[in-house]
Amino acid sequence: MFAMHTWNCPRCGTSKTRLAPRRGVTDHLLGALTIYPVRCQLCAHRFTTFLGRMKTNPRRNYDRVSVQYPAQVRPTHDPSQHVVVEGILSNLSLRGCRVRTSQRIPMGCQVMLEFHPAEYDDPIMIDGAIVRSRCAEGIGLRFSSLLRSEERRLRRILDLRLPDHAN
Predict the structure, then answer these.
(1) What pLDDT, on the 0 to 100 scale, is given for residue 3?
(2) In which band, very low, low, confident or very high, does the pLDDT at 165 lie, cut at 50, 70 and 90?
(3) Do 146 and 125 share a structural domain?
(4) Domain endpoint, select from 61, 76, 102
(5) Pairing assessment for the beta strands 110-115 and 138-145 based on DSSP bridges
(6) Can you point out the beta strands (E) in 23-75?
(7) CA atoms of 33 and 27, how far apart (whole Å)
């Protein structure tokens, strides 16, 4: 287990950051000098920092937080949007989520997501998401587009639930 470090985001100032996966030759060369990429969990800014010792390459860019929100998923290929998949949003990050559902949606399918957090009176609408994983318990979605106002509301939820030192 790694010791906790505080890397404040140079863009928004939060300490809710974590090591990001290395990508490309430059990141790997800098890694040899113990300079690693870090991703802000709230504003998505990616920056590098000197760590002074070797680290393993993390798998994910964003930490997920555990939630329990009612959710509806609608495939965007259905113009009438009569196909509605009901489920429970079980984890959430700035760029994706997992929805527990017994209904099947094909991999790669473009969908709209609506979920109702207890923190808000109105549901959050994600205009564009893609089914990136499927299992018996549900589906994993990657957000491809959302309105700035919805992203702000999503960031507020994450800000409340993410630990200050998410590295």
Answers:
(1) 43
(2) low
(3) yes
(4) 61
(5) unpaired
(6) 35-40, 46-50, 65-75
(7) 10
- Would you state the structure tokens that stand for residue 90, as one six-digit string? 């079980």
Q: Quick one: 149 and 70 in the same domain? A: yes
Same-domain pairing of 8 and 82: no
pLDDT tens digits for 85-113? 999 999 999 999 999 999 988 999 999 99
Q: CA-CA distance, 153 to 105, in Å (whole number)?
A: 26
Supply φ then ψ for residue 31, to 5 degrees.
-60, -35
From 96, 121, 126, select the one nearest 111 (Cα to Cα): 126
Regarding whether 108 and 77 lie in a shared domain, the answer is: yes
Contact between residue 32 and residue 59 where contact means Cβ atoms under 8 Å apart: no
CA of residue 46 relative to chain centroid, distance: 14
**For residue 80, what is the DSSP state?**
T
How many C-alpha atoms does 34 have within 13 Å on its Cβ side?
Answer: 6
This prediction has a pTM of 0.75
In the listed set 20, 41, 61, which residue is the last one of a domain according to the structure? 61
